[in-house]
Amino acid sequence: MNAWLATRLSAGLFWSAVALILGYMTIPALVVLMTSVSPSELLEFPPSGFSLRWYERALTYPDFQGAFVNGLIVTAFASSLSLLIGSAFAYLVERYTFGGRVALEAILASPLIVPHFTTGFGFLLLGANLRIGQSYAVVVATHVLLTLPFVTRSVYVSLRNLDPALERAATNLGASPLQVLRRVTLPLLLPGMAGGWLVAAMLSLTEFTASLYVTAQRTQTLPVAMYTYVREYTDPTIAAISALLITFTTILMLIANRYLGLRRILAIDAH
Amino acid sequence: MKGEASPAVELIKVSKSFDAVQAVRELSLTIRQGELLTLLGPSGCGKTTLLNMLAGFEVPSAGSIVIGGRDVTAVPPYRRNTGMVFQNYALFPHMNVFDNVAFGLRMRKMAKFEMARAVGHALEMVKLEGLASRRIRQLSGGQQQRVALARAIVIEPKVLLLDEPLSALDRNLRGAMQVELRELHERTGLTTLFVTHDQEEALGLSDRIVVMSRGEIQQVATPLELYRLPANGFVASFIGEINRLPPARCRTEGNDVVFEIAGGIVLRARKRNQPTIGAGQETHLFVRPEHLTLVEGDRPAPNRVSCRVTAHLYQGAYTLTRVDAGPLGNLQLRVLGGEVIAAAPIGSQIKISIDLDKAVILAG
Ligand SMILES: Nc1ncnc2c1ncn2[C@@H]1O[C@H](COP(=O)(O)OP(=O)(O)OP(=O)(O)O)[C@@H](O)[C@H]1O
Ligand SMILES: [Mg+2]
Fold first, then answer.
1. Nearest CA to ligand 1 atom 26
2. CATH code of the domain occupying A61-265
3. What pLDDT, in 10s, does the model give residues A136-152?
């Protein structure tokens, strides 16, 4: 067997493996997508024909419309707040070692340890106790908490990758600490911060478990409205709205990738 | 001479400790107006720490720093007006060449048109005219180096601080940049403190050299003095190649000084004006490889010693020949050309002559 053939073969093997894994990862979404274009009144897979009627219904269903707007409001506030808090926290931990590294690691690991169910349930009880029930404030607070680790990590990684000599150079050239922050540190952190914000936005838009507890009819987000819908109806509208949500999130993701580079955002470790 | 003018920089008994490490110990140093002074020393001897204290990034544990007649010990780094060039250049990646160079001027709130002129002039100085709108990423290492230099000189600092600025460049480029740095220094006339651990760089570039070791100054001298008259064993062995002979006892004999070395070896030198060498004293002899010569046949020569060839290191213009000289230990000779490799093969017995008149003689 010559070397050329060997490389071709191993390349072939590699790409088959990639295709297999990709297929596996996208199967559920594909099933939903196919179901969404079925003309049948019932959820059926594989679909028996092609129709866009369920898309029309999904887009005109008032509960979905309201929930989508709710979701956007919650996401806008939650990911922005999360960015603010996460950036400040990452900066403090990176710059002043007051044993903060331990706290940081605890926070970064918390979403793996505390189930969303618990977080939502906790905020529900707390909200009831404070008599602010299932208000936007509680929903936003929940989403900030759930997205904070990702934003913090994103900003923290950018900070770690920032060459401290750059800030020194600016200082040496006459920039006061505030000017250094404004002209060097912040501009260089911007991609990491924007990336963190986008990841937070995507998580917040699609979050379901905790939102189920902390939202009411008035404040419910799209995933919650979708859940309510499937409990009452069994038509493919739910598949159509799923497909729309996936598309929307994918577009966000593509924007992130185009302008910031996914690798940078998803970088778990600085080294 | 400018020597009369007030010094550009004065360090007065400056110390710096990091926890247990004492990086700089009671160091006093004066940098003259407009000179290029080099800090030379092995890794970890405190060069960067000293530079950082001048720039204001480190606060001395004790002592004071005076720049341009003003005590700046407690002045924050952004009000010191020093110009630093970092080892990895530290150029701002989110700005183009122009904005990098203009940064210091913006901080000084210089007017737009004046700034454009100053930046243009600085870029011309480092031969980067026409690259003002380039991104930093599109520059070669040598070009980045020049931008860093332009950025530092454009603010007309009281002292230019260079921390091993050439170490990241490849060998050829380094040689060329040394020449350019020297020219740039002549044109700008900026007082410059240059840090390096490369002695060739230091010898070739400096007006004066400060040799440091373990946070202390070993000697301050011109390159010529430093090579010819090192103040102690550390400097002697740190600057250039040198052979250290075993300790000798010396006495005077007429116009000669006689050195007796264990093993019955006696070496002679003409008496010189060096009060530190007294009769009966223990002395240390350091001889450069170029002051050891091969002796052919039985020709008379001063301080003839027999030895055995152990290695040849051919260097092109010359060959470094290693010999085992018995009681004198292992020595290294510098022989012009490469013929010696065939003439005195490894293992052969040869005779060498030691020119002690050019040796460094230090009291024990
Ligand atoms: N921030 C710091 N914390 C603790 N120790 C330090 C710090 N900075 C320097 N040191 C120590 O001080 C000593 C001098 O360090 P410095 O960086 O000044 O050496 P250097 O001469 O510049 O060496 P090199 O040629 O390797 O750059 C070293 O022993 C170093 O470990
Ligand atoms: Mg250093």
1. B43
2. 1.10.3720.10
3. 899 999 999 999 988 98
